[in-house]
Amino acid sequence: MVMRWFKENVWAAVAVTLLRIYVGWQWIDAGWHKLTGGFDASGFLKGAVGKPVADHATKEVLFPNYTYFLNHFALPNVKLINILIPCGEFLIGLGLILGGLTLTAAFFGMLLNFMFLMAGTVSTNPWLLMLGVIVFTAGANARRFGLDAYLLPLLRKGWTKLTNRTDHTKTDNNINGKVLPH
Q1: CB-based contacts of 143: which residues, under 8 Å, 6+ apart?
Q2: DSSP string covering 125-173, please?
Q3: Residue 107: which residues within 8 A CB-CB, separation 6 or more?
Q4: What is the pTM of this model?
Q5: Domain chopping of the chain, boundaries
Q6: Tell me: the pLDDT tens digits for 69-107?
Q7: What span, in angstroms and rounded, lies between the C-alpha atoms of 144 and 141?
């Protein structure tokens, strides 16, 4: 009953919209500072690999696959990471503030928060992760007041047009009224 209210009620949509804008502002602000401030992830990545998250008692690495990913993909491709992180944060914020591709933005925001947490950075990540889960859980109600009301029907129409091509011979092999052989 509570989840139904949360996912369908207009007042819940208003509350989630305000929450969505707040979380979006946090992301867009972080991304903007990285885009304009000469962001370099190499020190962070080296620190995450050099001192991974480990069990206090056994000193065993808790996320060995993630540490492997950082060491063997992220560090060698740090120039790509230096572009993806700030642009990703900025786009997540933009999507949440404008309500465009809202659930996609919330998903990728949660994913980034998990990645930062697995690298050992706490900061505001648990807080933003919890708020992101609330926005994501609201589903369609989270995007009720935003660009998704206009954007999603256009995307559905384009996707339907793209996937419902039935006869390729009429469009692909017909030049000036002559049907060409395959």
Answers
A1: 99, 102, 103, 149, 152
A2: HHHHHHHHHHHHHTGGGGGSSSTHHHHHHHHHHHHHHHH----HHHHHS
A3: 136
A4: 0.84
A5: 2-40+79-160
A6: 999 999 999 999 999 999 999 999 999 999 999 999 999
A7: 5
